[in-house]
Amino acid sequence: MKNALQVLKAGLSTNQGQPFNEVIKPIAEAKDFSVVELYFDGWNQQRVQALLAAPQKPGTFPAFVFAYPFSGDSGTFLSDAIQFARNGFVCLMIKAPSKRPEPFTVSQNYKKPKTVRANYLQWVGDIIRGYEYLGQMVNVQEERMAYIGRNLGAAISGMVTILEPRIQATVFQAGLPSLSQFWKTADHWAAAKREKEIGKDGVKKLATCIEDFDFLPALPNTNCPNWLFQFGLQDEWIHEKDIAAIKEKAPAKSQFIIHEDNHRMQADKTASYLREWLLEQFYQEETQ
């Protein structure tokens, strides 16, 4: 099996400079923000479906890509993205390949672990193409970009930040340091459910197929200099040892915040801290 990083680099090199053939469908518009549904050509010649929120005023702005939890969808961060657009950020939310409608879907079946791997490859590749799309927008400051990942979106942030050097700040919300180890060893209802579904051998094959996407081994090799790690006190998925393992390898300036929150990371204070941190990263000179 070819290493995922090598596969993605080769595919992205082929994609570089290729037209996006975008289709834009307006969804919402107000005095200070707009939201559109966006389709564009992604990685490996797949068609991407996404939402894009942007400030409704002249100027150029920093840009984010949001990557949502396993149970989420491209609209999971929409209310957050609208708030960010009002604060002067362009926000892209890409629908995961397995959740796209026909004919754009990439099928995923846990009894066939290679299809799970194919979805991870496609999603990461499409996210990088998303940054390329943002970079050519006239209202985006290409050198000022961020990544916000929650749960599964956080788990793939290591791979994303290795591949995309324009990311200057990353927010990691409630992610596992090693998703492959979780499936193999976790004493958790989700792991038990997956084992019941596909058997012990199936779980081992699944872990093998996705282990090169694990966050912890990727973290020392990322290009991003600024990290915010957010966790919840009531999170049944993430344990103290997981946070400690990430702290050990995180960049020296990283911030770790444990909120009065659960795995969904949707408490008002969690969102408020996130906004303040990102405003500080990208608008610090203006607020001093």
Properties at a glance:
288 residues, alpha/beta, 9-stranded mixed sheet, 9 strands, globular
Give an overview in words:
The protein is α/β, with parallel strands linked by helices and 288 residues long. 41% of the residues lie in helices and 23% in strands. It is built from ten helices and nine strands. The protein has helices spanning 4-15, 78-86, 113-135, 152-155, 157-163, 179-185, 189-210, 215-218, 240-249, 268-287, and strands at 23-29, 33-41, 47-55, 61-67, 90-94, 140-150, 167-173, 226-232, 255-259. Strands 1-2-3-5-4-6-7-8-9 form a nine-stranded mixed beta sheet, with helices on both faces. Helix 1 (4-15) packs across helix 3, helix 3 (113-135) packs across helix 7 (189-210) and helix 6 (179-185) crosses helix 7 (189-210). The longest helix has 23 residues, at 113-135. It is globular and about 55 Å long. The protein starts with a helix and ends with a helix.
